[in-house]
Design a protein that fits this description.
- This protein is an alpha/beta fold and 493 residues long.
- It has three domains: 222 residues, P-loop containing nucleotide triphosphate hydrolases (Rossmann fold); 170 residues, Nucleotidyltransferase, domain 5 (2-Layer Sandwich), CATH 3.30.420; 39 residues.
- It contains 17 helices and 15 strands.
- The strands form two sheets. The protein has an eight-stranded mixed β-sheet, sandwiched between helices. Strands 9-15-12-11-10-13-14 form a seven-stranded mixed β-sheet.
- Helix 2 runs antiparallel to helix 4, helix 4 packs across helix 5 and helix 14 crosses helix 15.
- It is elongated.
- The relative contact order is 0.09.
Amino acid sequence: MALPDLTLTDREIFEALAVRIKAQSAPSMAQKQQKKSRALNLSRTLFKEQLDFINDDSKRKAAICSRRSGKSYAAGRYLMKEALEDDGTTCVYVARTREAAKRILWSSMKEASIRFRLGIKFNNADLIAIFPNGSKIIFTGANDASDIDKLRGAAFSLAVLDEAAFFNIKLKELVNEVITPALLDRDGALVMISTPNSACHGFFYDLTEKGTYNFSVHKWTIKNNPHMRHAVAAIEQDIKNGILDPSDPSYKREYLGLWVRDDQEIVYNYTQNNLFEERPYSDKWEFTLGIDLGYHDATAFVVTAWTPDYPCLYIIDEYKQNRMLTSDVEDKIRRFMGDYKFTSIVMDSGGGSSKMLLETFKQRSNIPVQAAKKSGDKVGMIKIMNSDLKLCNIKVKRGLELLEEWDKLQYNKAGTAEDRRFENHLSDAALYAWQESRHYLFEEAESVPIPGSPAYFRQLEDDMEQKLLEEQDKTLYDPDVWGDGYSDADLFN
């Protein structure tokens, strides 16, 4: 009996090898079960509202919550779940600042790794959590251009933006230009969480309150958090004792997660009446440049314009950048000087380095920089500037980033200073420029009636009557008419 031909072709050999390699490399059922078990253990620490949020299949979702509601905790569990279940994936957690990202989630993730034996390695220098399956979670901030640039060109399966309502940068541009492109490769999910701000304005407000941008929106408060029952009881007792007022806008935002505007907490009170598109014509414009120095914080420049022809101060130009060197600041001033003929250039000289920079400009660069007027009562100066805003004596060019700062900038709870959570660099530069401007020297000219109007004809009649009276007076006192020797008394005898 002849044996069958057992000769294998090259194709058959490679196919057999591919099947074997695939079988060897594929996760075993035990491995898959282990992943699910770990993810399940993480989920068991969450309550219903958190689970509903995480398990929502939407690729774009947001949570608007109160303080101590467990929103950041849920975000951390969400990130770890994604990293555990998808080998080799990359997730990113973005807070307002890098320091805030580390403070909010870094330590709790370390504790979770130990508790659930996840074997996560933590790179403390770069703030990267690396999982045994090759997945990683990157922690970063959104206030520094260099940190944001690191996100460009990356590929994420999940991006979480925490306290999104309080970002100092333009949130919409961050989402559209940086985060969304980074999610395309892996069809990733974008998650945004925050408590409300007092301005009731901005990208996060629009998507959670107005329903724009097609986000799936979740809401819960501290009262839904079973781990905070003692805190809820304490809040209720404070209400009974009159310590907390449920009608107060701050209470509604902090404890109920509601969008409630509070103009008393907003530092700069502008309206749509303070905005302009184009400056009116004048050949007498004078310009002031206000500068707020920083390094890790942004250095900000604001240009104002005023003229004796109009009663308003016009805020017309701006620039803001982190990590500017002395030479960079000098170069930017000279660029502005090429566009505007400044009457004065004022710079914040509050710190030692600022004073040195001021003197450097005076002595070496021949730039006529003056020290900004900084009184001990900054809040008082802001109130005076707000009076100008209320009277519409300040106009701001529509679209300036300064308006973004003004929308968010709040006082601290004591009302004694600006809340440090919010950026104020352009605001300070504008304050310095406003103090140096002379728009208050405007004197309103006598109004001229429009030709053909009733007022115009009344003015003509008044002018004719005045002329007749003057002619009459001239005749009365003319010696050629009455002769010499007449007095005023003679006219009435």
